[in-house]
Specification:
heterotrimer; A alpha+beta (189); B mainly alpha (430); C mainly alpha (525); B: 430 residues; mainly alpha; 0% strand; C: 525 residues; Formate dehydrogenase/DMSO reductase fold; globular; disordered C terminus
C-alpha cells in the first residue's frame, strides 16, 4: 500500500535529497518555518547551531514521547533494583546483621533509587539518539560545504524530496519567496 | 542605563505597551468574595467551636488542644511557606514568578498571626494546663526527669516565652518589610525597591531559617522532650514549602476561575508551580526518609521511641499513608506534564497535598494524646477523629477568612515590578 | 570601529551585511566589565563585547584548535609528574598493604576516607551547575557548566580511587558488586558502604553521560571546522613533521566519531533538549542522594558526632559549597590565561558563584550550630562530651576552629559587594573554603574516632608519607585531567551560550529597518 513516490534525479544521475536555503536571522527562519508548516510540508527540517526557542511549534513538531519511555525504564530499573536486593539479602543469602530483619525495605531504598536513576539516564541518552536516527556519520547534508556552516552560525531550511509536496521548482520558488538565500540542491540519499 | 539595555540579553525588560490591557482593574483586583468570607467564617466558627466544645465531651481536653495545635501548626507552615517563597524569589531575582509573588506575600503576612494562634496552647499549658501536651511544662516531669533537668536551660518558661516573642518579631519584620516594599512599588513604581527587598531577603533568609527551625523545636519537637533530631527544623521547613506552594495553587486557581489574572498567570506559570510542587514533594520525602531512616537504622533508644509509638496501635497505617500519600501519589501524578498545565488537575493535587500535610501534622502531634495520661499507648488515630477534622476545618476557615480579606485589599500582582514583563512573557520552551 | 548601535551591528554581521572587526561599546560606569548591572529592570548581559555566533565558535574552538599559551606545558608537566608520584605511592600501597598507612588502630584510616569525601564533595558542584541551575532557568550557568561538569568527573575519578585502594585486597574489588560467585554469597545490602559503591558508580556514570551528551553538538562543530579546513586546504599542519597525517584529519575523525553524526537539525534539537531536561531532572536528586549516602556511612552508626539526622542535607550543602570553591579556583585563573574568556565568564558569573558560596556556607554554619545545639539538648553525655570537650577544645580543636574559620567566617566577606566582585578576593576565599572543607571531613572522621566509647580506642592520628603522597598525587591526577580537558575539549557549551545570546531569540528585533516580521508566539493574548 506504500504510496508511489516520485524520485528526483540530477542531471548527473544522483538522487536528489532536497532543496536547501539559508536564512539571515532566527526571526526569518522562524517565520519561514511557520509558512512551510502551513503549506503542508512534512519532510523538512530547520538547521541551526543552537535550539531556537519555539521552533518546534513553528514547525508543527509534536512533543516527543521520550520522557514517557524514560519514566517507564526508570521505574523498571528501580523495581528490579529492589527485587534484586530483596532476593539476595532477604531470600537467597540471609544474614543477621545489626539485629535487623532479613528483608526490611528501609536499607534497600538507596540502591533502589540509584538503579532507577541509572536506568533512566541510559534510556534518556539512548532514546534521544535512537529517535533522532543517530549515530549516522554519513549524511547527504554533511557533504555540502555550505551546510557545515550550520555548526557555526548558518541557519538553513532543507525540504526533502521525500515529501509528497516536494517539487524541485515550486519548492525552490517558495523558499526564495520566504527570504531564503544560497538556495541549492542537495544530492544523495 | 539604556546602553546596557540595548546590548544586553533578550530578557531586557522594557515596559511593553501591549501589556497595559492585562493590568486593567477588572483583571488584577479582586472585589468579590463576600459569600466566600461568610463560608470561611461559618467554617471557622463551627470548626473551632466544635473543637472547643469537644474539650468538655467524651474525647476530653487533651485531645481538643492537641487537635487545635496540630491544625495551627499546619496553617503556620502554609504561611511560612509563603514567606520562604517570597524570600527566595527576591534572592534569585526571579522574573517568571513576579505575577505569583503577591499571593505568597499575602500568605506570608499571616505567619505572625498564626504564630499567635499556635502559641495559645503552649501558653495555656504553661500557665494553666500544667503541661498536658507539652510534657516538659508538667510539674511531675520537671521534678523527676533527669533528661529534662539537663535541658532546663532551654526548656524553661521564661526563655520559652522570650523565644516565642523573638519569632513573632522576626516574622513580623520580614513580612512587614517585604510586603511593604511590594505595595509601595505598586504606588510609586520605584524599581529600586526591588533591590531593597533583595537585600532584606538576604538577611531575612538567615533569620527565617533559624527562627523556623527553633520554632519547630519549641512548638513541635519539645512536646516529647526526650526526643531530639538535628533534622527537625529542616523537616518542618520541608512541610512549609510543600504546603505553601499548595496553598498558592488554591489561591491562584479560584482567582483565575473568577476571571482574574488573565494573561498574567497562564498555564506556563502553573507548569512551573507544578514543578515546585513536585520538587517539594520529593524534598519532603528526602528529608522525612533521611530522618526516619537514620533513627531506625541506629536504633538509639531516646530517638527510636518517637517512631516506635508511631508505628503501632493503628499509627502504622498513618505512617504508610504518609509514605504513599505524601510522596508516591503526588510524585507519580505530578510527573505528567498535562497535570502541571491544567488548573483543575493542579488544584485537585493541591487539595490532596494540604490534606496529607495536615495528616503529617496529625502524625506528629496526635500520638501525644495517650490512653493514660502522658505515659500510656497513644490513642488510636481513628478515635475521636472528628475533633481533629473539626480543628483543621476551623483553622482553615480562619486562615481563609484572613486571606480573602488580604487578597481583596491590594492588586493581585505587583503591578509595577520592573521584572513584570518578563513574567508576562514567560514560556517553557522545552 | 563602528558607531552603530551594538545590537544593530550584531544583526548586520549576522545577516552578512557587515564583517570584520568587533565593535567596541562604552561600558556604563559602575558596572565593572559591563556585567555588574544593579538596575532591577535590566538583565545583565551574559556574554560581553557584543559577540556574534561566529565569535563564540571562534573563541571556544580556538582553545581546542590553537596551541595553548606558554604556561600550559610546564603546568601540565608538573601536575603530570605529581600524578605519577601519587600513582607510585598507590602501587607501593598495593604491594605492601594498607599497613603503609600506619593502620594499627581505628583512627588511622581517617585520611583515606577524608580524601574520598573531600573529592566526591567537590564533584557535586558540576552537576549542581548543570542540573539544578538548568531547572531553575539560571541562564548564566551556560558559561560555566561544561568546565564544572568536567571537574565533576575528574573529582569522581579521584574520589573513587580511595575506597578502591582502601579495601586492602584490591584484587578482590569485584566483591563490591553483586556478581554471582562460587561461594554462593551476596554482598550485604544493609551496609552503607555498599550503597556508596552504587551511589558513586551511578554518579560517575550519569555525570559522564550528561557531560558527553552536552558535548555532542560541540564535537560536531569541531568536526565541521576541521572538515572545512581539510576541504579548503588539504595541506594543513601535520600531527608530527615526519608523519603524513594531518592534524585536521585526526580532529575530523575523532571529533566526528564522538559527534555521532550530529547535524544540528531542529527536530533533533527538540528531542535533545527534552532529553537534557530529563537528565537534569534526574541528576538533581542524584546529587542529593550521592552525598546523602556518603553521609549515611557515618550517620547510620551510633558514634557520637556521626549519628545525627541532619547529616544528609548538611553534607549536600557542604559538597556544593566546596565544589563551587573548586570551580572558582579553576576558572578564575583560566579566564586570565585564555584569550577572550572574560567575555564569556563575566564578573557577574563570579559574583553569582560567590553568592552561592555565601548561601551554602551559611547552610553549613546552620548545620554546625544545629549539631552543637542538639548535642547539648539531647542530654546524651557522649554527644555533649564530644562537642564541648573533643571538638571545641580537645587535641584537635585547632582543626575544628580552622574549619569554622574557613567555612563560616571567611565567606562572610561576600556580604560586601566589592568582595564578591573582585576575582582576587573570591579566589582567596575559595582557597580558604577548599581547605576548610577538607578539614570538615577530617574533623568529623578523626575527632569522633579518636575519642570513641572505649578509652582503649583512644589514639591520635598521624599521616604517613604514603598518606600524604597519595593525596597530593590525587590533586595531580585531577589537575592533569583538567588541563587535558582545557586543551582538547570544548570548554564552553557553545550551543547553549549561543542560545542565550540576544540575537538567538526569534522575537529579537534588531532596531534597523528591513528585518520585518512581527510578534509571534506571545503567550496569553
Amino acid at each position: 500500500m506504500a504510496k508511489q513516490r516520485k524520485v528526483y534525479v540530477t542531471e548527473g544521475g544522483e538522487p536528489v535529497y532536497g532543496v536547501i536555503a539559508e536564512f539571515a536571522t532566527p526571526a526569518d527562519v522562524y517565520h519561514a518555518a511557520e509558512k512551510i508548516r502551513d503549506a503542508g510540508y512534512s519532510q523538512w527540517d530547520v538547521y541551526a547551531p543552537f535550539p531556537i526557542h519555539g521552533i518546534d511549534e513553528a514547525m508543527g513538531q509534536k512533543r516527543t514521547k521520550l520522557p514517557l519511555v524514560c519514566a517507564c525504564v526508570g521505574l523498571t530499573g528501580a523495581g528490579l533494583g529492589f527485587l534484586m536486593q530483596y532476593w539476595m539479602s532477604g531470600v537467597d543469602y540471609q544474614l543477621v546483621v545489626q539485629g535487623k530483619p532479613y528483608g526490611p525495605w528501609e536499607p534497600f531504598v538507596p540502591i533502589t533509587f540509584e538503579l532507577g536513576i541509572l536506568f533512566t539516564a541510559f534510556s534518556t541518552l539512548i532514546c534521544m539518539l535512537a529517535m533522532n536516527g543517530l549515530p549516522r556519520h554519513n549524511h547527504p547534508l554533511l557533504k555540502k560545504e555550505r551546510f557545515l556552516g550550520c555548526s557555526d552560525d548558518t541557519l538553513a531550511i532543507c525540504i526533502e524530496s521525500a515529501d509528497d509536496k516536494f517539487d524541485p521548482d515550486q519548492t525552490r520558488a517558495m523558499l526564495e519567496k520566504l527570504g531564503g538565500r544560497n538556495i541549492d540542491l542537495v544530492e544523495g540519499d | 542605563m539604556s546602553s546596557i539595555a540595548s546590548h544586553g540579553h533578550d530578557a531586557v525588560l522594557h515596559n511593553d505597551q501591549s501589556h497595559e490591557h492585562l493590568l486593567r482593574d477588572s483583571n488584577v483586583r479582586y472585589t468579590g468574595g463576600g459569600s466566600l468570607s461568610t463560608l470561611f467564617l461559618v467554617m471557622a466558627v463551627l470548626g473551632l467551636g466544635a473543637t472547643i466544645a469537644s474539650a468538655f465531651m467524651y474525647t476530653g481536653k487533651l485531645h481538643a488542644i492537641a487537635s487545635f495545635q496540630m491544625a495551627a501548626m499546619g496553617c503556620l507552615a502554609m504561611c511560612l511557606g509563603g514567606m520562604f517563597f517570597t524570600l527566595v524569589m527576591h534572592l534569585m531575582a526571579a522574573g517568571w514568578s513576579i505575577t505569583l509573588r503577591r499571593q505568597f506575600e499575602n500568605l506570608m503576612v499571616f505567619a505572625p498571626v498564626m504564630l499567635i494562634v499556635a502559641s495559645i496552647v503552649p501558653l495555656y499549658d504553661l500557665f494553666i494546663g500544667n503541661g498536658s501536651l507539652y510534657l516538659w511544662m508538667n510539674d511531675k516531669y520537671r521534678a523527676d526527669s533527669i533528661v529534662l533537668q539537663k535541658k532546663i536551660d532551654f526548656l524553661n518558661p521564661s526563655f520559652f516565652c522570650v523565644r516565642l516573642m523573638l519569632y513573632f518579631f522576626i516574622w513580623t519584620v520580614i513580612a512587614w518589610k517585604l510586603s511593604g516594599y511590594s505595595r509601595r512599588q505598586d504606588e510609586t513604581g520605584d524599581k529600586w525597591l526591588s533591590n531593597k527587598a533583595r537585600f532584606t531577603s538576604a538577611w531575612g533568609m538567615l533569620a527565617f531559617a533559624l527562627s523556623t527551625a527553633f520554632a519547630s523545636f519549641d512548638l513541635l519537637m519539645s512536646m516529647d522532650f526526650r526526643f531530639f533530631s538535628t533534622m527537625w527544623g529542616v523537616y518542618y521547613f520541608a512541610s512549609t514549602a510543600f504546603s505553601g506552594v499548595a496553598a498558592l495553587v488554591l489561591i491562584i486557581v479560584p482567582l483565575r476561575r473568577a476571571g482574574k489574572l488573565e494573561g498574567l498567570v497562564t498555564s506556563e506559570h502553573l507548569h512551573d508551580v507544578g514543578k515546585l510542587m513536585f520538587t517539594f514533594t520529593v524534598f519532603w520525602a528526602y528529608i522525612a526518609f533521611s530522618q526516619y531512616f537514620l533513627i531506625w537504622y541506629s536504633n538509639v533508644p531516646e530517638e527510636t521511641v518517637w517512631y516506635l509509638v508511631r508505628k503501632r496501635d493503628g499509627w502504622q497505617f498513618v505512617f504508610f499513608l504518609l509514605a504513599i500519600g505524601h510522596f508516591i501519589v503526588p510524585f507519580l501524578i505530578l510527573l505528567f506534564r498535562g497535570v502541571k498545565r491544567s488548573p483543575t488537575a493542579l488544584a485537585i493535587v493541591a487539595i490532596w497535598m494540604l490534606f496529607i500535610h495536615f495528616t503529617d501534622m496529625f502524625f506528629i502531634v496526635r500520638p501525644m494524646v495517650t490512653t493514660r495520661f502522658a505515659e500510656g499507648t497513644p490513642l488510636s488515630p481513628a478515635a475521636g477523629i472528628w475533633v481533629d477534622l473539626a480543628a483543621v476545618f476551623g483553622m482553615l476557615g480562619l486562615l481563609g477568612l484572613l486571606l480573602v480579606w488580604r487578597v481583596r485589599s491590594s492588586p493581585l500582582i505587583p503591578l509595577r515590578d520592573p521584572r513584570l514583563p518578563e513574567a508576562i512573557e514567560h514560556k517553557n520552551y522545552v | 570601529m563602528t558607531t552603530l548601535h551594538p545590537d544593530e551591528s550584531a544583526a548586520r554581521r549576522l545577516a552578512g551585511l557587515a564583517t570584520g572587526e568587533l565593535p567596541t561599546y562604552p561600558v556604563p560606569p559602575g558596572t565593572g566589565d559591563g556585567s555588574l548591572v544593579d538596575d532591577p529592570a535590566v538583565r545583565a548581559p551574559l556574554v560581553l563585547n557584543n559577540r556574534s555566533f561566529h565569535d563564540i565558535t571562534e573563541i571556544v574552538c580556538g582553545y581546542a584548535e590553537k596551541p595553548p599559551g606558554k604556561w600550559w606545558l610546564p603546568l601540565f608537566g608538573l601536575s603530570f609528574t605529581i600524578a605519577q608520584i601519587g600513582t607510585l605511592f598507590i602501587i607501593y600501597l598495593i604491594i605492601t598493604g594498607i599497613g603503609a598507612w600506619g593502620m594499627n588502630n581505628q583512627v588511622d584510616w581517617a585520611w583515606d576516607i577524608t580524601n574520598f569525601v573531600f573529592w566526591i564533595g567537590i564533584g557535586h558542584a558540576g552537576t549542581l551547575i548543570s542540573a539544578i541551575l538548568c531547572l531553575l532557568k539560571q541562564k548564566w550557568r551556560t558559561a560555566v557548566n561544561r568546565s564544572a561538569e568536567a571537574m565533576t568527573i575528574f573529582a569522581v575519578i579521584c574520589a573513587a580511587t580511595f575506597p578502591g585502594i582502601h579495601i586492602g585486597r584490591q584484587w578482590m574489588a569485584w566483591f563490591l558488586f553483586p556478581i554471582p560467585n562460587s561461594n554462593a554469597i551476596w554482598p550485604n545490602f544493609k551496609s552503607p558502604l555498599l550503597w556508596d559503591v552504587f551511589a558513586v558508580s551511578t554518579y560517575g556514570t550519569v555525570s559522564f553521560l550528561f557531560w558527553y551528551m552536552g558535548m555532542i553538538p560541540d564535537f560536531a562543530t569541531l568536526r565541521d571546522r576541521a572538515d572545512l579546513r581539510l576541504r579548503r586546504n588539504a595541506e594543513g599542519p601535520r600531527v608530527l613533521p615526519f608523519l603524513a597525517l594531518r592534524t585536521d584529519a585526526v580532529r575530523a575523525y575523532v571529533y566526528g566519531f564522538l559527534a555521532l553524526g550530529w547535524r544540528f537539525s531542529s527536530r533533533h534539537w527538540h528531542r535533545y533538549e527534552v532529553a537534557y531536561l530529563v537528565l537534569a531532572g534526574i541528576s538533581t536528586p542524584l546529587v542529593l542522594s550521592v552525598h546523602s549516602i556518603v553521609s549515611f556511612d557515618f550517620a547510620t552508626s551510633i558514634l557520637p558526632g556521626w549519628h545525627t539526622t541532619i547529616f544528609p542535607p548538611y553534607f549536600v550543602a557542604g559538597a556544593i559549597f566546596g565544589g563551587f570553591a573548586m570551580v572558582l579556583l579553576l576558572l578564575i585563573p583560566a579566564r586570565e590565561l585564555f584569550p577572550n574568556m572574560k567575555d564569556l565568564i563575566t564578573l557577574r558569573h563570579i559574583e553569582n558563584m560567590a553568592k552561592i558560596i555565601l548561601a551554602t556556607g551559611m547552610i553549613v554554619g546552620f548545620a554546625y550550630s544545629m549539631e552543637f545545639f542538639i548535642a547539648w539538648y539531647s542530654g546524651n553525655e557522649y554527644e555533649s562530651f564530644l562537642f564541648t570537650h573533643v571538638r571545641a577544645q580537645g587535641p584537635y580543636a585547632w582543626a575544628y576552629w580552622t574549619m569554622i574559620f574557613c567555612n563560616v567566617v571567611t565567606p562572610q566577606v561576600f556580604w560586601l559587594k566589592f568582595c564578591r566582585q573582585s576575582p582576587m578576593i573570591v579566589f582567596i576565599v575559595s582557597i580558604f573554603v577548599t581547605i576548610g572543607m577538607w578539614f570538615e571531613r577530617f574533623v568529623i572522621i578523626v575527632t569522633s574516632l579518636h575519642r570513641a566509647f572505649l578509652p582503649a580506642e583512644w589514639s591520635m592520628f598521624w599521616p604517613t608519607a604514603v598518606d600524604i603522597g597519595i593525596f597530593v598525587g590525587s590533586c595531580g591526577i585531577f589537575l592533569t585531567l583538567f588541563l587535558l580537558f582545557l586543551r582538547f575539549l570544548p570548554v564552553f557549551a557553545m550551543a547553549e551560550v549561543k542560545a542565550v545570546l540576544p540575537q538567538a531569540s526569534p522575537h529579537h528585533h534588531p532596531p534597523h529597518p528591513g528585518t520585518g516580521g512581527h510578534e509571534h508566539g506571545k503567550d496569553g493574548h
